């Protein structure tokens, strides 16, 4: 039997695109499943080119093509829904008029913090909920379901352990330190510059990634430390950069949304030793890799980074662990085999209507979708007050997660991009006014 799988997502950019492409390619190699891509937004040229080369069917702009969306949902054996908080996906999941289908939902965010929290009812939307990290089992909205023993699976969001060129040995030269990944305080630790300077790392620290690399450059300049950093912005050749590094300094915002952290796999595969400050998700990743050091506090991260750049004994120990990397559940063949088992399981279920709970009437206003997405958090009440022309006070502002200041990622500005809604404009205007101070 050949099961037809429709991958449905807002788009296939960034890390999710990398993971989905790897999964489809490996699944096609193993056989037994046919895959198609569907995007609610316009597909990127890179996605189109990849799908064309492999002969993978692609439909896009489905948010604006109702008949094509319904046809795609009907003409498949099951829908593999790739979930993160996105206005168009939120709108689709609240619809009452879509045809029945089988659905497995894979979360590509950890679900702990707004705006990428798991909304109420998410677990009941699909036939099977699959998390990308076991840390998500501790997300507030899943607590009761986990206690009741609800069937929730975990498959790591990963493109597998890549083949990387070996790190270039330099004998007794200074330890080379770098950061590779998202350069944005939503993901990168907001005090990245300070933490690195306190560690007193020898040589210049290389920073690769965007989109806020110019802001980071300005922050380094503001403290007179621009010569301590080599800020590259986005790069195309991560393997070549990894071969230049000895240590990956990877402090993250404690409220970040991520799961896969593919860069940790790339670093270890290249023989580069990670020093990490983040969440339980990153600790789990390092445990699976069997390499790298995890800090519990900012002070410990600084101390570890200082120690690792001066004590080559620790470095040599961790390099041996990196070299021993093998037979991990992060291997792509194991991830793909897990998905094949899930597809077989969901295929046994009958097709049925799917709609997320939270709004008890069809055709909700865009601002209702936004409020439903953060129901159960402080921000739902806060947004409601802003719609009534309330103003920020300092306590409100301290409680705002950085994700709500982003242009995308499920923020009010993201909703405003797609929808002309007076209540959304009221909320966004209040944020813009406060940010302008």
Protein described:
InterPro entries: Glyco_trans_1 (IPR001296). With 437 residues, this protein is an alpha/beta fold. The chain has 3 domains: 3-160 and 331-347, Rossmann fold (3-Layer(aba) Sandwich), CATH 3.40.50.11380; 177-323, Rossmann fold, CATH 3.40.50; 366-435, no CATH class. It has helices at residues 14-30, 45-54, 66-74, 87-93, 143-147, 192-199, 213-222, 238-242, 262-269, 280-289, 298-308, 312-323, 332-347, 366-373, 378-387, 394-398, 412-418, 422-435, and strands at 3-9, 33-39, 57-59, 78-83, 103-107, 128-131, 152-154, 177-180, 205-208, 229-233, 247-251, 273-277, 293-295. It is globular, with a radius of gyration of 22 Å. It starts with a strand and ends with a helix.
Shape: globular
How many helical elements? 18
CATH first level of the largest domain: Alpha Beta
Q: Helices and strands: which structural class?
A: alpha/beta
- Strand order in the largest sheet: 3-2-1-4-5-6-7
User: How many distinct domains?
Assistant: 3
Major β-sheet, in short?
Answer: 7 strands, parallel
Classify the fold: give the CATH topology of the largest domain. Rossmann fold
The oligomeric state of the chains shown is: single chain
Protein name: Glycosyl transferase family 1 domain-containing protein
InterPro entries: Glyco_trans_1
Domain Glycosyl transferase family: 171-319
Organism: Allochromatium tepidum
């Amino acid at each position: 039997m050949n099961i037809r799988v429709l991958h449905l997502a807002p788009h296939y950019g960034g890390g999710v695109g990398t993971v989905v492409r790897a999964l489809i390619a490996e699944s096609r190699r193993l056989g037994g499943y046919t895959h198609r891509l569907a995007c609610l937004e316009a597909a990127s040229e890179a996605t189109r080119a990849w799908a064309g080369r492999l002969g993978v069917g692609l439909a896009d702009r489905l948010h604006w093509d109702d008949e094509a969306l319904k046809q795609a949902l009907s003409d498949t054996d099951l829908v593999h829904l790739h979930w993160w908080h996105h206005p168009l996906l939120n709108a689709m999941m609240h619809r009452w008029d879509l045809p029945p289908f089988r659905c497995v939902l894979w979360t590509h965010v950890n679900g702990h913090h707004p705006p990428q929290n798991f909304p109420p009812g998410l677990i009941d939307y699909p036939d099977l909920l699959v998390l990308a990290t076991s840390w998500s089992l501790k997300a507030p909205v899943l607590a009761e379901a986990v206690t009741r023993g609800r069937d929730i699976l975990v498959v790591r969001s990963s493109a597998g352990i890549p083949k990387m060129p070996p790190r270039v040995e330099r004998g007794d030269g200074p330890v080379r330190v770098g950061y590779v990944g998202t350069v944005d305080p939503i993901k990168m630790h907001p005090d990245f510059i300070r933490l690195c300077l306190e560690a007193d790392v020898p040589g210049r620290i290389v920073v690769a990634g965007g989109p806020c690399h110019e802001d980071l450059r300005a922050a380094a300049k503001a403290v007179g430390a621009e010569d301590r950093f080599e800020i590259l912005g986005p790069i195309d050749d991560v393997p070549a950069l990894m071969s230049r590094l000895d240590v990956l300094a990877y402090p993250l915002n404690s409220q970040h949304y991520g799961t896969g952290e593919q860069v940790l796999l790339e670093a270890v595969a290249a023989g580069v030793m990670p020093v990490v400050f983040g969440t339980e998700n990153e600790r789990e990743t390092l445990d699976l890799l069997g390499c790298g050091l995890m800090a519990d506090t900012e002070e410990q991260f600084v101390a570890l980074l200082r120690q690792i750049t001066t004590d080559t004994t620790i470095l040599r120990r961790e390099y041996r662990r990196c070299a021993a990397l093998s037979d991990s559940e992060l291997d792509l063949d194991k991830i793909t085999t897990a998905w094949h088992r899930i597809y077989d399981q969901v295929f046994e279920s009958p097709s049925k209507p799917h709609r997320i709970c939270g709004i008890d009437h069809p055709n909700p206003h865009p601002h209702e979708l936004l409020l439903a997405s953060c129901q159960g958090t402080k921000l739902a009440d806060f947004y409601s007050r802003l719609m009534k022309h309330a103003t920020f006070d300092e306590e409100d502002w301290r409680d705002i997660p950085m994700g709500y200041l982003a242009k995308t990622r499920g923020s009010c500005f993201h909703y405003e991009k797609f929808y002309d809604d007076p209540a959304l404009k009221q909320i966004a205007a209040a944020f813009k006014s406060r940010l302008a101070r």
